[in-house]
UniProtKB/TrEMBL annotation:
Matching InterPro entries: NTF2-like_dom_sf, SnoaL-like
Gene3D superfamilies in the record: 3.10.450.50
Name listed for the protein in its UniProt record: Nuclear transport factor 2 family protein
A Pfam family of this chain: SnoaL_4
Superkingdom, natural source: Bacteria
Annotated SnoaL-like domain residues: 12-141
SUPFAM superfamilies: NTF2-like
Length: 168
């Protein structure tokens, strides 16, 4: 192995790590109810998002951010009505070239839905395409395939944590 080969291998590993960090930032933005951080995970133009029958498809990140904000930021006084936790695992990232990659993830989700008094759980498979935009990896395409899902009532008298702090 020569120095150039080693440099290519390191660059590949760094790119894969940056893509993994991007996806983790995306899920963290979802959980922390941060529309700006959520928006920054996607390409500015040409997004191709399909979150399935529950949320639908989007060809523009702003339409996606609008729906995200409508749902995630819904509250009743000083409490959020939806408190989510997004867990992504088993990343499989393949670099196509220095500016393009594809990846798949297994995903587990739980929401405490105070609006409807239920806990929602789901698992999905993500299939993504990533592009470098302005020197940073962004999600260009994201399509999900539902795997499992179950909803059940929040037990009466359950001590439900408030979720992230509500801005005053």
């Amino acid at each position: 192995m020569d120095v150039r080969d080693l440099a290519r291998r390191v660059a590949r590993l760094e790119a894969i790590q940056e893509i993994e960090r991007l996806k983790y930032r995306y899920w963290r933005a979802c959980d922390s109810k941060d529309p700006d951080a959520f928006r920054e995970c996607f390409v500015s133009e040409g997004a191709d998002i399909d979150y399935g029958p529950g949320l639908g498809g989007f060809d523009d990140r702003e339409k996606l951010v609008e729906l995200y904000s409508k749902l995630a930021l819904r509250r009743d006084g000083d409490r959020w009505l939806y408190n989510d936790i997004h867990h992504g695992m088993h990343p499989d990232i393949e670099l196509i070239d220095a500016n393009t990659a594809v990846g798949s993830w297994t995903f587990w989700f739980m929401r405490v839905n105070l609006a409807d008094g239920v806990v929602e759980q789901a698992s999905l498979e993500y299939r993504d395409r990533y592009l470098v935009e302005d020197g940073k990896w962004k999600i260009q395409s994201s399509h999900v395939t539902p795997l499992t899902g179950v909803n059940f009532p929040i037990p009466e008298g359950a001590n439900v944590a408030p979720g992230p702090a509500v801005p005053q």
